[in-house]
Give the backbone structure.
Amino acid sequence: MTPSPYIKPYLQTPGPTPIPPEVSQAMAYPVVYHRAPAFVPIYAAALENLKKVFDTQNDVLCFAGSGTAGMDSAFANLVQPGDKVLVTSAGKFGERWRDLAEAYEADYVYLDVEWGTQIDPAEVDRALTENPGIELVYTTFSETSTGVVHDVKSIAEVAHKHGALIIVDAISGLGAGELHQDAWGLDVVVSGSQKALMLPPGMGFASPNEQALARAAAKPQGRFFLDWNRTSKGQKKDPPDSPFTPPVNLFMALGKALDMILEEGLENVYDRHRLLGRAARAAMKAQGLEIFGLDAEEAAVVTAVTIPDSVDGNQVTKVMRDKYGITIAGGQSQLKGKIFRIAHCGYFGPFDIITVVSAVELTLKELGADIELGAGVAAAMNVFADAGVPVNA
Ligand SMILES: Cc1ncc(COP(=O)(O)O)c(C=O)c1O
């Protein structure tokens, strides 16, 4: 067969993720002036609905930028050189907190746990006991590089016991894994647009509570664009107003995406993600493949899979993309060539999982693994059949 010059592309990475056609359409609306009557209600509604997804009464502050803008803001606003902080890390994005701690010259303690394992709240407790005076704890909800979802609720309890504020990176997890900012006592949650929120890249979020805003206000120097109180003041106005030109078309998209999420219902959204994770894991295990990291229901964001030794690990994502048109993520840093990752955060449904599983089977077989074509697909289908519910997306 002659190779086709066109292969239908499928985006199956944990960010950017595919976006619903309705969201693309909303974004295609002509650009409007950000203080025009055509935009203000869209902006106001998006700000209100964002709070529902964070499950918070705090304002969710929006920054044009990527998710890292949200993370950066959580250092720029809270940390002055020499401030004592604890950084927990179990992967590539925990390392980003450490890099920020370096950049902002924090006096930081680094709790570095093995990639693929969960951060143990007891270890956080020990680190805080051994290092009195720590005022801030930075941690990760969904560690996208390993697929592990961390127990940020328990970590928050420990941080508060020691009088520290907790800052959570929920960039890939928000809107995929169950998270309740206020009920869990998370002082700041940061996120980004291009994952489970079903939007293109371009927005970073941070939702500081009053204590975090007060700490920021007490240390007002060393930032401008990412200043929480400046953005908060604008967003609190009636009608709300951004201190800088907001990405208006992304807000139109955000409005639509949030409507879709809330119409599906957050509990259903979480259930859908759990179901997709369950199916992905069942499919991989049916092929005798090992789940890297967390083989558990809460691993609902991305499934990381260990590449068998018999396979050239660097070829997996390449064959998937070049031969089958499916872009999945490989491993990062020390996991490069060792794992691949099946994303299921955001606009994903059962047939996305079945599609990617079938291409994984074809790819691994071609690369020499012992694969029985269809066994993983059947396992995933059985998970969906057993669930017995129609699934959105
Ligand atoms: C958990 C986590 N934190 C931080 C980031 C960085 O976000 P961005 O690339 O949008 O700046 C990502 C992106 O993959 C992520 O998954």
Remarks:
- The longest helix spans residues 266-286.
- The domain at 31-263 is CATH 3.40.640.10 (Aspartate Aminotransferase; domain 2).
- Residues 15, 66-68, 93, 96, 140, 142, 144, 169, 171-172, 192 surround pyridoxal-5'-phosphate (CB under 6 Å).
- The chain has a mean pLDDT of 96.
